[in-house]
Specification:
This protein has a single domain, classed as Roll (2,3-Dihydroxybiphenyl 1,2-Dioxygenase, domain 1). It is built from 2 helices and 8 strands; from the N terminus they run βαββββαβββ.
């Protein structure tokens, strides 16, 4: 039986820059930063919102994952749930985050789309109130 989503990968071209963006700019926790295997230059970098079960892996495509290099900087179809999108919008704008889509209120919630440090597009979503 499947019980949860463990990890989601976001493919990046610079792991240090991406780690800085996800931890410092978005405020996520750094869960793991270790070599992918002994002697590897690429690392297993896992970040997540505080208390979240699912981790985001900031994955640098290597020769075994060459086909993923083409998706760096493309929409990753990753949605991050937020609890105050207006406040977050202001805070992220102050930090220089590029909004591809400004917050847009819809019947199913309010969403916005940002670009991370690698040009990947991430969806921010606030559930409708009450």
């Amino acid at each position: 039986m499947i019980t949860k989503v463990n990890t989601v990968s976001v493919f990046v071209s610079d792991q240090d820059r991406a780690k800085d963006f996800y931890t410092r700019v978005l405020g996520m926790e750094l869960r793991t930063d270790a070599p992918l295997f002994p002697g590897a230059t690429a690392r297993w970098i896992a970040v997540a919102p505080a208390g979240a079960e699912t981790e985001i892996i900031l994955y640098l495509p290597d020769e075994n994952w060459e086909h993923y290099k083409q998706v760096v900087g493309q929409s990753q179809a990753l949605t991050l749930e937020v609890n105050d999108i207006a406040d977050l919008h202001t805070a992220l704008k102050t930090k220089g985050v590029h909004f591809v889509q400004e917050p847009d209120v819809q019947p199913w919630g309010t969403f916005a789309i940002i670009e991370d440090s690698e040009g990947n597009r991430l969806i921010l979503n606030e559930q409708p109130q009450g």
